[in-house]
Inverse folding.
């Protein structure tokens, strides 16, 4: 059964103000806490998998949101990290705008269905203007969780 | 030169064939693929994203560059708008698309490819 976004999100990997200013840095910044939490077995392999996909297609979905993602066996379950950037990161979005909200999603190679469903769920949620506004306004990690829990209906 | 292809993504019986054919074409041409799914209401959004990400996963496996587009509204209008916005060289739709191919051909500013599902020819019946 598909888990809720808030259940997949790693608390240690919620970063309210990303320090990186480019997408490679942001991906590494979000990958490191996942690794520290024991969810990523090989940080370099994980980052490479995300960047391989990123190099082929932009995961900047527009509306100030980017969703870098990959299937990789450096994780054993679907994992999710979230970062926010006030200045915005260039994820080469089709609308040309920088990304302020970044969701990093990874799942094992074998978990295609779960992976697609999680991507679809996060993408759908991020198209809602009120959810983006609430996430941008959240002052604490708990508030980020609260926004996701309130808006993620199974 | 066809370098930018727009695939109309729809939940129809022929779509899987159209998607495979389009990915092969994009790979052969080293073209960038734009996948557009238009939904009538927000309720259809999650299914639409699932279809787009399924396609993206297949494109990634084949080394095809792809951009996903999800729009709400009237399908024909969204196709015409996207074709213009992204300087599309050809639009690809399934034979069973909700968009009438003849109407799209008339209104489109670029060539339209209509993909028909292959079927076995019954020589006695069909020829």
């Amino acid at each position: 059964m598909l888990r809720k976004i808030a259940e997949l999100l790693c608390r240690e990997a919620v970063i309210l103000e990303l320090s990186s200013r480019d997408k490679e840095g942001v991906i590494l910044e979000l990958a490191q806490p996942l690794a520290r939490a024991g969810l990523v077995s090989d940080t370099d392999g994980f980052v490479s998998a995300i960047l391989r996909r990123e190099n082929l297609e932009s995961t900047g979905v527009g509306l100030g949101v980017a969703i870098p993602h990959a299937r990789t066996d450096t994780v054993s379950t679907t994992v999710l990290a979230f970062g926010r950037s006030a200045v915005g990161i260039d994820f080469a979005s089709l609308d040309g705008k920088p990304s302020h909200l970044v969701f990093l999603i990874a799942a094992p190679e074998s978990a295609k269905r779960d992976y697609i469903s999680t991507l679809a769920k996060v993408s759908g949620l991020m198209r809602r203007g009120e959810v983006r506004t609430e996430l941008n306004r959240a002052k604490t990690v708990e508030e980020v969780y609260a926004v996701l829990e309130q808006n993620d209906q199974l | 030169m066809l370098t930018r292809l727009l695939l109309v993504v729809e939940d129809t019986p022929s779509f899987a064939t159209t998607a495979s054919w389009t990915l092969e074409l994009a790979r052969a041409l080293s073209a960038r693929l734009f996948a557009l799914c238009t939904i009538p209401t927000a309720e259809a959004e999650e299914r639409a994203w699932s279809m787009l990400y399924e396609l993206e996963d297949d494109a990634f496996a084949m080394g095809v560059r792809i951009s996903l587009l999800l729009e709400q509204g009237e399908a024909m209008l969204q196709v015409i708008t996207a074709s213009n916005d992204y300087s599309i060289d050809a639009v690809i739709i399934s034979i069973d698309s909700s968009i009438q191919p003849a109407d799209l051909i008339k209104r489109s500013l670029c060539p339209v490819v209509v993909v028909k599902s292959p079927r076995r020819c019954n020589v006695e019946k069909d020829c």
About this structure: Strands of chain A lie at 9-15, 60-62, 65-66, 69-71, 79-89, 99-107. Chain A touches chain B at residues 53, 56-58, 61, 71, 94, 112, 115-117, 119-121, 123-124, 127 (CB under 8 Å).
